[in-house]
Amino acid sequence: MTLNQLRYFCAAAQCGTFSRAAEQIHISQPSLCVAIRNLEKELGVALFRTNCRGAVLTDAGRLLLQDAQGILQQVDAAAAHMRQYAQRTGAEIRLAYTAAVARNIPRLLRDFAADGGAGCCICSDEMPSDQIACGLREGRFD
User: Fold this and answer.
1) What share of the chain is helix, strand, coil (3-state, %, to 5)?
2) How confident is residue 113, by pLDDT bands cut at 50, 70 and 90?
3) Whole-prediction pTM value?
4) CA distance linking residue 65 with residue 128, whole number of Å
5) What does the pLDDT read at residue 52?
6) Residues 98-112, buried b or exposed e (16+ Cβ, 10 A)?
7) Could you tell me which residues are beta bridge partners of residue 115?
8) DSSP E strands: which ranges in the chain?
9) Integer Cα distance of 1 and 38 in angstroms
10) Which of 6, 7, 30, 5 is nearest to 18 (CA)?
11) What angle do CA 141, 95, 138 make, to 5 degrees?
12) What angle, rounded to 10 degrees, do the helices at 18-25 and 3-15 form?
């Protein structure tokens, strides 16, 4: 499960149709449908039921929507926290991430730099989640 899949899923749930959701988040409708279909395969549940009016959440979809909105709020809060942190002169951010999110890191770092974090030194490394947890407990990562 990726952050993009969760963002696409939330957009579709809020818009009620895949076409409106794709338009809102500036991707093609087929790309959105494929991402949601892959998410459903990964989770082993149907998230939407389609009808003549659009896409309706299933019970599983309603449950995931609550969790997904919370996750995305935490991600946005973390990004805001890091932007505030970067405003400090000579700030250093120590970032660790798993392979599952590695492909999103370059875009997130570009977005971060564009949002005012350009003067910040970011040290990042990909590693297994157990090593990340240990590093967080030891204060090695932000």
Assistant:
1) 65, 15, 20
2) confident
3) 0.62
4) 27
5) 83
6) eeeeeeeeeebbeeb
7) none
8) 48-51, 54-57, 92-97, 121-126
9) 9
10) 30
11) 10
12) 120
